[in-house]
Amino acid sequence: MIEFLVENPRFGVLAIFTLIWVAVCLAIRWFILRSALPMVRERELHGLTFREVGPISPEQYEVFFNGHEIGYVRYRYGYLTAEFPANGGWCIFEKALATQSGQMTDLERGKWLPVIARRFRNCLKEEKR
Length: 129
What we know:
- It contains three helices and six strands.
- By secondary structure, it is an alpha+beta fold.
- The chain has two domains: 2-35; 42-128, no CATH class.
- It has a six-stranded antiparallel beta sheet, covered by helices on one side.
- Strand 4 and strand 5 (79-84) form a beta hairpin.
- The longest helix is centred in the first third of the chain and has 27 residues, at 9-35.
- The model has no long low-confidence stretch (mean pLDDT 82).
């Protein structure tokens, strides 16, 4: 096989290009699957606990820090919001997502819940000042 690749340089370049392309595709696939978050009853993100309140239509989470509720996350009909503090507080995140249903996809959940968790952490830091 190696002699064939050496005799015809075109096939050698094609084989190297194919191996590189396969490696890049596998790396991209690994990154996408790693960031997907399936829906679970309770999840820890950045030291905060996201507890599922409503699984579908709307998908809702209460957010806790050290056992105290600090926020509320809601996804309904393609619109994701997060409020801090939970009871009628101010909105710290608003985003219209591509999925127009009562539940986020695993990839959307994996992309946006960590962002929301970081915003809650920033709000907690500012509140301590």
